[in-house]
């Protein structure tokens, strides 16, 4: 088959059984993202999901670690095409708090490699769980300690809001914003990741829709907006809902949202007005919980934009600290 200009619509990749759409090859070449398999060294497996696996590796002679993602199991040409499309999306992201792309290797064998920056400090969810005792404070905690922890957590929220504001301005809808999909690099900067990158893709966090065991689409129900659950509608405002849940995760020390609630009845509970209570944490004051509640308005148009959220969170940090510290490291 040929494209409208007479060129082949897809090209056979040397050393692979896959054919890659011509426009994908063109975009990867234009962005100088194409890498040769001889330049890539795989070191150890750092994450594995249902459909993909992530390795720590190195590119060329550099000693800098990278993350290398590839498909696993049985997959067809359509899944390979979608996998390469993921890399094209990442290739256009240029923001401090959004995961970017280093390169793509198409001659790796049965499935391409997507090469990304290595997130040395893992997922935000893993960090929150590890630090829960230092994040969730009792009413007896020292006031200065409460303020310091609150500032740290709000800076995390501001980094995520900043990244999501960038994605929203680019008309990109994430659909799976959660603490497990926010990664922390070697300099303790949060970067929003996508495409099931996190190794903590636990079965219990997802509900399989449209089929029996092994079939259908897996959905992160407890992070999804009501309109996404009922009508399959996703937008910036559905991402805002997920941001509210992610903020709740941060201030609860990485606890699972809606504990004990069956995902099958969650949509009914939300439509009846139920919302998660304020995290049992002195650090989470009424202002912060109010931001979560704003994100959980039933009507999407009543929720704030990410630009508004970033402003609200930044102002809260400034009021609490007396000034806004740019470059403040929330993990130290």
TrEMBL record:
Record-listed ATP binding positions: 69, 180
A GO molecular-function annotation: metal ion binding
Cellular component per GO, a single term: receptor complex
Record key words, sorted: ATP-binding, Kinase, Magnesium, Metal-binding, Nucleotide-binding, Transferase, Tyrosine-protein kinase
InterPro entries: Kinase-like_dom_sf, Prot_kinase_dom, Protein_kinase_ATP_BS, RTK, Ser-Thr/Tyr_kinase_cat_dom, Tyr_kinase_AS, Tyr_kinase_cat_dom
Superkingdom, natural source: Eukaryota
Listed SMART domains: TyrKc
Catalysed transformations (reactions): L-tyrosyl-[protein] + ATP = O-phospho-L-tyrosyl-[protein] + ADP + H(+)
Record membrane topology: Single-pass membrane protein
Keyword Magnesium: yes
Gene3D superfamilies, sorted: Phosphorylase Kinase, domain 1, Transferase(Phosphotransferase) domain 1
UniProt main location, coarse: membrane
Residues in the signal sequence: none
Active-site residue numbers: 176 (proton acceptor)
Residues that hold Mg(2+) according to the record: 181, 194
Any GO BP annotation: cell surface receptor protein tyrosine kinase signaling pathway
Metal-binding found in the keyword field: yes
Domain spans labelled Protein kinase: 40-332
Cellular localization per UniProt: Membrane
Xref: PANTHER family: MACROPHAGE-STIMULATING PROTEIN RECEPTOR, TYROSINE-PROTEIN KINASE RECEPTOR
Name of this chain's protein: Tyrosine-protein kinase transforming protein SEA
